[in-house]
Write a structure and sequence with these properties.
- This protein is an alpha+beta fold.
- It has nine helices and four strands; from the N terminus they run βαβαββααααααα.
- Helix 1 packs antiparallel against helix 7 and helix 3 packs antiparallel against helix 7.
- Bound molecules: glutathione.
Length: about 210
């Protein structure tokens, strides 16, 4: 049995989304980050970083949403959202996954938690740097999506696209949201048209960006 520790709209969103797409049986355990539940002793035993999500698989906790997506998709018997090993798509898939997880997601962390990067006295500068990094990466992603006219690695979605979709959602209240780039906007429309999106939103009680 899988248990996803989640918080609505947080980094757990993409994992929850893929679980729905794959039809994998799972339980949800809500973590109220506004009450600091991610820093309790019990939760830190599962996720020593004190962040959401955690995916508990057969009593063993797993951390990092990107790792969870890779694991879930490669363990799907039909490998529906995983590239063929050795294929050109696999090289694109790994490159984009690592770039998003190492480059774009930490820039969002800096945007939402600027004091971590630069201290309380320098949050404006930290946010400005984060914004620049995010916008530069969205421009690069837009070129890639324009070249495939579909998803990051081609005409079919892969696990990495669920990660990207979540990161794009996080930009919705920023000065320049991802949807202001045309190929990014088309990608968002494609992902929102999947029935799993409505189910995800209903389950997490989300309404914004629908
Ligand atoms: N790279 C991590 C990032 C996790 C993360 O930063 N989660 C945020 C929510 S989106 C969180 O738990 N914030 C509360 C905190 O840091 O105390 C992942 O993708 O799993």
């Amino acid at each position: 049995m899988l248990t996803l520790y989640f918080s609505p709209g947080a980094a757990s969103l993409c994992v929850h989304h893929l679980l729905i797409e794959l039809g994998v049986e799972h339980q949800l355990q809500r973590v109220d980050t506004s009450k600091g539940e991610q820093k309790t002793e019990a939760y830190l035993k599962l996720n020593p970083g004190g962040v959401v999500p955690t995916l508990v698989v057969d009593d063993m906790p797993m951390v990092e949403s990107a790792a969870m997506l890779m694991w879930l998709s490669s363990n799907d018997p039909q490998r529906r959202f995983s590239p063929e090993p050795g294929s050109p798509e696999e090289r694109l898939y790994l490159s984009w996954f690592l770039l998003l997880a190492n480059g774009l997601q930490p820039a969002f962390r800096q945007w939402f938690y600027p004091q971590e990067a630069a201290g309380e006295a320098a949050t404006d500068g930290a946010k400005a740097c984060a914004r620049e990094r995010i916008e530069n990466l969205f421009a690069r992603i837009d070129s890639q999506l324009a070249s495939t006219d579909g998803y990051l690695c081609g005409e079919q979605p892969h696990a990495v696209d669920f990660f990207l979709f979540m990161l794009m959602r996080w930009s919705r209240n920023m000065p320049r949201p991802a949807t202001t780039w045309p190929a990014c906007a088309a990608f968002v429309a494609r992902m929102k048209a999947r029935p799993s999106f409505a189910e995800l939103y209903a389950r997490e009680g989300l309404t914004e960006w629908s």
